[in-house]
Design goal:
Helix 3 (67-72) links the parallel strand 2 (55-64) and strand 3 (84-94). It contains five helices and seven strands. The chain is 26% helix and 27% strand.
Length: 187
């Protein structure tokens, strides 16, 4: 009887080891979510407003404010509404570099300073590994469907308003008071 339990235990361990090995094999063969599927973030309840010479233009946006969200961005997205975008929020003003690898749709990348002013607008080509950078430190990057900036008259120096931009603080800049900030609507 003792011999039979020992044998059964040995067989059970061997079966368990095979199952763990098979699970690990199949787990590592399946692409991760970031490798094959678009990340969809919740739409922020507040619209982002671009103040241009042609007037104000509102956009619904997703806010990417964590490292994993910024890394995934709009990868694997095939299409996006003309009035929709993604706002990348960095913890501090810094040099940033973007590329379009794994992004099948062309984009406008709008680089924005701490003060909400546009510093540069670059065009991103689908699937490109070319580095897109504004040439100066920024705090935010807004990605829109390609051609949106030109169509809506969005240009360098224009102001972007959104609660996230209005409340961002940084070196040499006190935290914004939502009631007094020129970058936040107080409706």
């Amino acid at each position: 009887m003792v011999h039979k339990n020992w044998l059964t235990a040995g067989v059970m361990c061997a079966v368990a080891a095979v199952m763990v090995a098979a699970s690990a094999f199949f787990y590592f063969q399946v692409p991760s979510e970031a490798d094959s599927r678009a990340m969809i973030l919740p739409v922020d309840p507040a619209p982002l407003v671009a103040v241009t010479k042609k007037g104000e233009r509102s956009f619904s946006i997703e806010v990417a404010d964590t490292e994993p969200e910024r890394e995934a961005g709009l990868m694997f997205r095939d299409d996006m509404a003309a009035n929709h975008g993604m706002l990348f929020v960095f913890e501090e003003t810094r040099d940033v570099n973007f590329w379009m690898k794994n992004t099948p749709m062309p984009l406008d990348l709008i680089f924005v300073g701490q003060d909400g002013r546009i510093r540069a607008i670059k065009q991103g080509e689908p699937q490109s590994e070319a580095i897109l950078s504004p040439g100066e430190p920024v705090r935010f990057v807004l990605e829109l469907k390609a051609g949106t900036a030109a169509r809506d008259g969005i240009a360098d120096g224009d102001l972007l308003r959104h609660p996230v931009i209005g409340t961002a603080s940084g070196p040499g800049m006190p935290p914004a008071d939502k009631g007094d900030s020129p970058n936040v609507d107080s409706d």
